[in-house]
Amino acid sequence: MKDAFGLPQSLLVLGGTSEIALATARRLIARRTRTVWLAGRPSPGLDEAAGQLRGLGAEVRTVAFDALDPAAHEEALGKVFAEGDVDLVLLAFGTLGDQAHDERDPRAAVRVAQTNYTGAVSAGLVCAGALQAQGHGSLVVLSSVAGERARRANFIYGSSKAGLDVFAQGLGDALYGTGVHVMVVRPGFVRTRMTAGLPEAPLATTPEAVAAAVELGLRRRAETVWVPGALRVVMSALRHLPRGVFRRLPV
Fold this sequence. Notes:
Elements: E1 10-14, H1 19-29, E2 35-40, H2 44-54, E3 59-64, H3 73-82, E4 88-91, H4 99-104, H5 106-134, E5 137-142, H6 155-175, E6 180-187, H7 207-220, E7 224-227, H8 231-239, H9 243-247
Parallel strand pairs: 1-2, 1-4, 2-3, 4-5, 5-6, 6-7
């Protein structure tokens, strides 16, 4: 169960090698979290992440999970919930893709969409059902400001995140009053391996800053979290710019 501040004692991470997710797990372990499940493709990286979290004092287990295999989601994630209640599910998997390449290779573009949207819909519904069955818990979904408005530079990735964002908002409404809390997190440019080599955008942030925002959002039982907070105002302005003006911006 959650502690008096709304922080989880048990955590399931979907995307167990995500730098943002691991920063969040470290922060929560430093508070009260004692049991962590890392779900992801079996790999040395997943094992290393589990080992690092064990070194912080948590009981950590891994579970084989592939966003691109929705048919296996219910069985794989069901095993986690069968072990006991899960206070927090952090949906953190995703792929950026390569916009220039993916425009020329529709199959690659579809892979981005299937990972970021289809896989997330499947896993999100499986976890939401399990959380509802146990009567409590939070589902935190890592979205992106890229989903707020289509940009020439990353509209394939952005469109997948837009779909994920709307799905998560609707799921939160569907679960309202059931004891299950859904929180959408919209970071801007985060300095991670995924963005290495890309031009850094204004208001760039770090995995640790996103983790701090997630913790604060959980304490406040927020429904939407922007990281950094100033992006809420920036994106509101950009979202309402006339299309002709927006096209001329260096975005």
